[in-house]
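Summary of Year 1 activities. Much of the first year was spent building the evaluation harness for sequence design. The harness presents a backbone, in tokenized form, and records the residue chosen at every position. We chose the following record to illustrate the format because it has been used consistently in internal testing since the harness was completed.
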């Protein structure tokens, strides 16, 4: 596995790979790999000839009071794991390389980025869309792999790729979970043992909502209330949002569930903000 830090070098490698007929898959990450990241790499390995993983903690998607400085990092460990999972190139640019002095161009995906995490993290998806567009332009992949845990992010990227006629296939990978159901996340490392016990409330609330809906309940208010009451029985939890809406465009569906719905949650467990989601069909 080659470690690349220069944008021109990474771009030249990608041009050469494409010229030689290789199918390239990109896995964009912020590092501190867990099993979820590794599953994305394994998926990329299966559907391509060459796998590129980007490792970049993107400052433009963090708000001024968010966890940019303390976001977990371990480059040496990440490189070893990536190599073990068959990655051909790991691209690790610096912030100065990605956003040089005078940088002033950003991409904004309007409607799909407004609610859910976009409401509580203003500017977050502008940073996400911009950095992903840059990574796609630099690495020139045929396929880019994203996890469904960040469901809104996935839709933002799909919308951007479609709207800007980018020649890349966005591939979604199902949420990878711990044995007890907790969605894998680098931020799980922030949790104390007691908070970790309460973090399972997101997954168990989703399973409860699925049971309630499949048992015949079609009121969004009732389902949302059941979710909130369940989460609030766990200590250290504070709900940011409970969303029940259209899984295609993230718009609210009104008072009645008539077809497949996205249930998306954001919950603070202690000071750690966790997200999870599920698409449920009545």
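For this record, the design step produced the sequence shown next.
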């Amino acid at each position: 596995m080659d470690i690349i830090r220069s944008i021109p070098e990474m771009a030249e490698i990608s041009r050469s790979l494409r010229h030689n007929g290789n199918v390239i898959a990109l896995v964009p990450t912020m590092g501190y790999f867990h099993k979820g990241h590794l599953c994305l790499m394994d998926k990329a390995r299966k559907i391509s000839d060459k796998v590129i993983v980007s490792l970049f903690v993107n400052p433009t998607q963090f708000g001024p009071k968010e966890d940019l400085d303390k976001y977990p990092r371990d480059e040496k460990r990440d490189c070893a794991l990536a190599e073990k999972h068959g990655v051909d190139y790991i691209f690790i640019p610096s912030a100065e390389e990605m956003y040089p002095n005078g940088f002033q161009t950003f991409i904004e995906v309007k409607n799909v980025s407004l609610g859910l995490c976009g409401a509580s993290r203003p500017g977050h998806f502008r940073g996400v869309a911009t950095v992903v567009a840059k990574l796609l332009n630099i690495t020139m992949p045929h396929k880019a792999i994203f996890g469904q845990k960040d469901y809104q992010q996935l839709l933002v990227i799909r919308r951007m790729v479609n709207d800007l006629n980018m020649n890349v296939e966005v591939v979604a990978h199902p949420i990878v979970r711990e044995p007890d159901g907790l969605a894998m996340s680098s931020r799980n490392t922030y949790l104390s043992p007691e908070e970790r016990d309460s973090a399972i409330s997101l997954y168990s609330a989703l399973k409860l909502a699925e049971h309630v809906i499949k048992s015949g309940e079609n009121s969004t208010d009732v389902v949302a209330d059941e979710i909130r009451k369940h989460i609030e029985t766990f200590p250290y939890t504070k709900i940011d949002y409970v969303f029940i809406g259209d899984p295609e465009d993230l718009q609210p569906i009104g008072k009645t569930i008539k077809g497949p719905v996205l249930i998306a949650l954001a919950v603070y467990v202690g000071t750690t903000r966790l997200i999870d989601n599920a698409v449920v069909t009545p």
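The chain has two domains: 2-173, 186-277. Quantitative recovery figures across the full test set are reported in Table 2.
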